[in-house]
């Protein structure tokens, strides 16, 4: 008798038993008896094919994983591990660890036309119980000035939320005394690109100023929210052009650095920084509130729209307000590759800012699509963009709002190539763009490069 | 293997009795599985049944075939099947609940780096790799931020398999006891970036397991594609696979991530933990050039294996274990 015959016979018997008008207990007994007499082929088949429990189900998939990766990758050698654990660890490795120092060093280097080449060293020493001490010093070979920063950071309090889906809330103390070189309009600054461009071409126009002083700050951090309060005693001063030397000779057309307004201030300060996410949209707010001449607030909104799986539109908007009588180094600028790229750094500055950016980027690998020979790690995505905005400064400081006039607006449109190298952060982009000015006083056709992110007004 | 829950239990009691139960139930194995019962297997413990309004659903439960190959009339089940959005939300909650259950843990971490001189995807022989690094540590963690790692083995090997004097690899564990990373594709902030699909429903013993695939909506997103297996009893992720096969998030370092597999196991029949992470990575040429310059050549294809075993969860790790003075000795 085949298994198929047996199962058919068993089913017939069971069906008959089920239809029999017997008491439930009698029916159970009858069917059990019939099943055993019939050899219960069907039941045997079912018993043999009984489902594995969850552990066996997972183990089955793990076995497939082992086959895919091979025994060399998946079979661990644990010889002697238990003995070492009973002995309290591997003395050789623990000895190595005890030699590890909490003191870390890293180099500091740069180039700017207000400093020339600068070289230095950064040292940090940190333990969880003590906090982190940092000391950094560098020397500018053209302006012959030193820069330094001594800082102390300590986590005063932290709370891990239940469920651990959020980052811990923290209260952080920062103490610092520093003499630093800081950029104008930091939200649009491009430190590395500016240094490289200044070194190679000598014509980079990113302006900087010197800030020297002490600051104590207490920051409450929860998720993406930072609320800070503190006190600052510092002095800002201008940094003039110090070198025309570039890598391949002397560039006599190097533009002057915009002179910062010298100012001493002792002030209490408050600051806020937050980033909010809603679906594929982001909103950010940065604010600094201190002396009546030194407050500065900036907000930005970004939205990604996927038109097709290989075609994205990125929309960004930015608005900024700063004190009307504030120093020039606190103004907003419309120039630079992150704002209106047909303008250079330092162009179109004001204490009010409105900026809009639209970019259409394709996900295709341009070089592969064009069948151009290229290394596999160079993946360029083509895109088109249009940026436009206005900066303006009017009024007598009485606080009334003045809208921009038509002559304040500037814009640019062009082509871009985007490469995602994956470092120094996974979100870092290298963007090469050619921008053509739109409208009067919008600069010149300009090629620029930028290290940025998709939503560079929010990062 | 696909069989309904109650049916399996019936077979445990005896084949005859099981079939009788089926007969008494009118030969309705599919509804007996309660696969779509909101008060049953689909909702996590503690959830209120009836949160989802019942909708008439055809009884063609594709994961629960009839036990007996007889034509039976089509049944209407009034219980709803969970929608994808509900599953995504419940998984996020289930993972959060899983994390909150663990106060302290001890485990042995085993790590291995294996290189393949020939790419297995291009005809290289599977499993014929060369071990480049092997490490074992015993790790103790305790909320909120305590961690202690006891290194037991840390051995590097050269291309010929000879042990090196110094591994030059330092692996530290953080104090985080959560396993949020496994649910990255279900993170509320990323859900709008992904397109999800229920690929399969599998009934395993008294568990209904959903296999859900996910893929970024845009190829410009720096997110991998993958799939997860979700146990709908606890709404925890049992297993996850993800990959970057047609693109790389860091082309200067990685040519592609062929596969990364995360496996979980249940400890003490209560706590789900990551048991293994295995990844096969094809490295990019610039990284290999740099390794040659550093006189530490690395192969084209690398397998990384990470295993956590010998778990003790909520066993009461003493605070003295984390005392700084012990670490200095």
Question: What would your notes on this structure say?
Answer:
The complex is a heterodimer of chains A (459) and B (329). Chain A is 19% helix and 44% strand. Chain A starts with a helix and ends in a 7-residue tail after the last strand. Chain A folds into 3 domains: 1-49; 92-272, no CATH class; 279-459, Porin (Beta Barrel), CATH 2.40.160.50. Chain A is globular, with a radius of gyration of 34 Å. Chain A is of the alpha+beta class. In chain A, a hairpin with a 2-residue loop joins strand 6 and strand 7 (225-238). Chain A is built from 9 helices and 20 strands. In chain A, helix 1 runs antiparallel to helix 2 (24-37) and helix 1 packs across helix 3. Chain A has a 16-stranded antiparallel sheet with strand order 1-2-3-4-5-6-7-10-11-12-13-16-17-18-19-20, covered by helices on one side. In chain A, strands 8-9 form a two-stranded antiparallel sheet. With 329 residues, chain B is of the alpha+beta class. Chain B folds into 2 domains: 5-81, no CATH class; 96-328. In chain B, 17% of the residues lie in helices and 36% in strands. Chain B is built from 6 helices and 12 strands. Chain B has helices spanning 5-13, 15-24, 29-32, 84-101, 285-293, 324-328; strands spanning 57-58, 76-77, 104-116, 130-142, 146-156, 194-204, 207-216, 225-231, 236-244, 254-267, 271-283, 301-313. Chain B has a 10-stranded antiparallel sheet. In chain B, strand 10 and strand 11 (271-283) form a beta hairpin. The longest helix of chain B is centred in the N-terminal third of the chain and has 18 residues, at 84-101. Chain B is globular and about 70 Å long. Chain B starts with a helix and ends with a helix. The model of chain B is unreliable at 1-63 and 325-329 (pLDDT under 50).
